[in-house]
UniProtKB/TrEMBL annotation:
Biased composition (Basic and acidic residues): 1-14
GO cellular component, one term: cytoplasm
Organism whose genome encodes this protein: Daphoenositta chrysoptera
Annotated segments matching region Disordered: 1-25, 83-103
Name under which the protein is recorded: TNIP2 protein
Gene name of the encoded protein: Tnip2
UniProt biased composition (Polar residues): 92-103
GO biological process: cellular response to lipopolysaccharide; positive regulation of canonical NF-kappaB signal transduction; regulation of transcription by RNA polymerase II; toll-like receptor 2 signaling pathway; toll-like receptor 3 signaling pathway
Amino acid sequence: EVQKLNQQLEEKNGEIQQMINQPPYEKEREILRLQKTLAEREKAQATSDVLCRSLTDETHQLQRKLASTAEMCQHLAKCLEEKQRKEKGNSDDQIPTERSNQLLDNETSLQALICNLQEENRMLKQKVAHV
């Protein structure tokens, strides 16, 4: 193990000597290459930071929208329940077919809206996890 480490140390020393013995223009070229690489990495990091901030802002905006939509759904569901109670209370007769179909359509649209909101919520959670 010690011999292996000594050999690696000698190789690194050889590389250092090789760099020291290089002509000045080679050193300058290497410095320029490293500076260019650094500049590219800094630019990529800046871009990444901007995208992260943008995604964070969008996530907050979508969360607020989801919360307001969920609140609206709850309100609509309460209104539908109240309407159904009133209709049942007003008449002991069977609800007309047209009225029944309308209620089913409202209920179906509410369920579809809830499904859409759940899907949007799932996607938002994925985005938040990704960010």
